[in-house]
Specification:
Arc Repressor Mutant, subunit A, 6 helices, two-stranded parallel sheet, 4-stranded mixed β-sheet
């Protein structure tokens, strides 16, 4: 399998994205391509830099930051366990501008909050699969792989918090 990647600037810092031969998103990361490589769950040395194969995803991410898009219409190809895939699917149901707690997701999926937190933490497709919209039961901005500052900026951008 070939993997194609691109890194570009966003209002909250560099964003990296990897897609497969069909253009389905495999992984994303805030930061350089090095941050992205650690999130890819396939056996390759490095993705091939390709701004054409990643153009659709890049365009939608940039439209999100421009305020022109509140959801993504991209093919996704995350690699995970059946439970992780269920959690990541449920994350995509959290509306733009809203948050939910780990406990809320646990009740919905009939699981424990810690198991939800673990699956959320291993989400390979941040932003597009909106793991940043999951917060602590007390409203705290916990558990985002790219730090509380980026999480806060994303939630502020969406109007979910002040």
């Amino acid at each position: 399998m070939n993997v194609y990647a691109d890194t570009f600037a966003t209002p909250v810092g560099d964003f990296s994205i990897a897609v497969n031969d069909k253009g389905a998103v495999l992984a994303t990361a805030f930061g350089s391509d090095a941050a992205l490589w650690g999130r890819l769950k396939c056996s390759i040395d490095r993705p091939v830099r390709d701004t054409i194969k990643t153009a659709a995803a890049r365009s939608q991410v940039m439209a999100y930051f421009a305020g022109d898009r509140s959801s993504f219409e991209l093919s996704l190809a995350p690699v995970g366990t059946p439970f992780q895939l269920r959690v990541w699917t449920e994350l995509q149901k959290i509306p733009y501008g809203e948050t939910c707690s780990y406990g809320d997701l646990a009740r919905t999926l009939k699981s424990g909050a810690r198991a939800i937190g673990r699956a959320n933490a291993t989400n390979p497709i941040c932003l597009i699969v909106p793991c940043h919209r999951v917060i602590g039961a007390d409203g705290s901005l916990t558990g985002f792989a790219f730090g509380e500052i980026v999480k806060r900026l994303l939630l502020q951008h969406e109007g979910a918090i002040n």
